[in-house]
Structure formats: structure tokens, C-alpha cells
């Protein structure tokens, strides 16, 4: 169906009419709302919520049942009506005095003045006179002088206390130093005694070793030298090698092993080998050879007469 110009005109007219009706309804609504505007009051609005009493819990119903009765505020008493004050009468003029005749005649001579005695104590007044400005300055100066004296005395006492404390600390330090010196002396004395005991034990072991070496075989290198010096040399070698040796568990105490040591003058070891007879196992033989190398330089000073480059030593297993 084709739309004509008349249909378009009719649609425009209807649209305009519809808008006019809508504007009229809006104006009527605004007019109605303006007449029914509530009064605006200051403060936040009051909100309330209706709650069914039967829907509350048992404690809430009990609390509502036991709530106190509202207290009625007492009404203020009416103020009494003001009473009209009486107006005072105006002041009357004072009458002038009228001279009267004296009953007694006036005296011809003046009466002597009798001073009244002062009941205050004059001594107290003299002892505490009112201070003058100069006396006040003297008093302040005296106070300052006394404060300076007190300060000087306080400083003197503090200095004396400081010196006494320093003297006590110095005395305590001296006592501690004396105690430390005493402990060191006791330790040195104990070490000296221990060293003497060790020396005695070493001498005894050396003597025993020399006896055993003499009984087992003739001392090595006995070609006209001093036999006692040779024995001491063997004991010294035994002790120095023993000090560097840790005995294996497989080597029994008292077992012997022959060592062939090649050395230079001064005790430097060139080689150390185990020779037969030797009661040590492989581990013991290697350990004694290592001990000889660790013990160098071997004893030399004092044993020059019995020194030999190739030395045969009969070593005995002992604990250090």
C-alpha cells in the first residue's frame, strides 16, 4: 500500500496533538505536586519498622514485658508574681545644729600629755629590722658566696670519692695480677716437676734399653769406642724414634726389629730400612721406617766419637 501526502499530514497532526496532551498532563501533575509539598524540618528523618510482637523471641518478649514505666517529669512550680516595691520618700533636709551652753567651764591650762606604754618587744624589732636595698644586696651576695662554698665542697667530695674509687680499682687489679702471677708460677713449677719426672722416666728407659741392648747383642760400631757413650747414643736414638712412632695394634709391646739407618754428620737421615730379624708385620715395618724419617735430625751433638754413617739399631716396641 502506498503512503500519500494526506496520510503524512494526518500523522503529523496526530503527533502534535499527542504532544500537546502530554504537556498538559505534565503541567497538571506539577501543579498538584506543588500544592502537596510537605513541610521540610531540620534533622535526620525518623525511621520506624513495624514488628509483630508474636514473631519476637522469648527473651525479647520478656524484656518488653518487664520494661519500666515511663517517668513523669515534674511540672515546674509557677513563679511568684512580682510585688511592686514601695517608693521611698524623698530625703529631708538636715536641720542645722543649735549651740548650747556648756555645763562646765572650759579649762584655763592645757592638760599634760601622758604617753601610753608600748607593749611590743623592742628587742625583736631591733633584731629583725626592715632590710634596706644595700642590706638586700649583701644578703644576696652572702647567699651566692655560700652557694659557691657548697659547690666547692661538693666538688671536693666528688673528687675524693673518685680518687678512692680509682684506688680501690687499682688495688683490685693489683690483687688480680698477683693472683695471675701466682697461678703462672704454680703452673711453671708444676710443668718443671713434670718435665723432671719425664726426664727421670726417659733416663730410666734409656738405662733399661742400654741394658737390654748390651744383653742381646754387642753395641753397633763397637770398634774401640766408649761402651757407655755407645749405650747412651743407642738410648737417645730409641727415644727420639719412639717419640715419632705410633705403635700399630698388630705390633706387641716388647717386640724387637732391626733397623739399618744411613745418615750424614749432623743426624740427617738418608734412608731407613727394616732388616732381619724383625718381629713386626708389614704395617709395623712401614710405620717404624716412617718414624725414623720423621725423627731426623737424629742425635749428633755429644755423640761424635760413636757416630757412624751406617747405623744398625735394635729397636724395641714401647708406648710413648
TrEMBL record:
<protein>
    <submittedName>
        <fullName>Cell envelope integrity protein TolA</fullName>
    </submittedName>
</protein>
<feature type="compositionally biased region" description="Basic and acidic residues">
    <location>
        <begin position="135"/>
        <end position="173"/>
    </location>
</feature>
<feature type="compositionally biased region" description="Pro residues">
    <location>
        <begin position="88"/>
        <end position="106"/>
    </location>
</feature>
<keyword id="KW-0812">Transmembrane</keyword>
<feature type="region of interest" description="Disordered">
    <location>
        <begin position="202"/>
        <end position="227"/>
    </location>
</feature>
<feature type="region of interest" description="Disordered">
    <location>
        <begin position="65"/>
        <end position="173"/>
    </location>
</feature>
<feature type="compositionally biased region" description="Pro residues">
    <location>
        <begin position="71"/>
        <end position="81"/>
    </location>
</feature>
<keyword id="KW-0472">Membrane</keyword>
<keyword id="KW-1133">Transmembrane helix</keyword>
<feature type="transmembrane region" description="Helical">
    <location>
        <begin position="12"/>
        <end position="32"/>
    </location>
</feature>
<feature type="compositionally biased region" description="Low complexity">
    <location>
        <begin position="202"/>
        <end position="216"/>
    </location>
</feature>
<dbReference type="InterPro" id="IPR014161">
    <property type="entry name" value="Tol-Pal_TolA"/>
</dbReference>
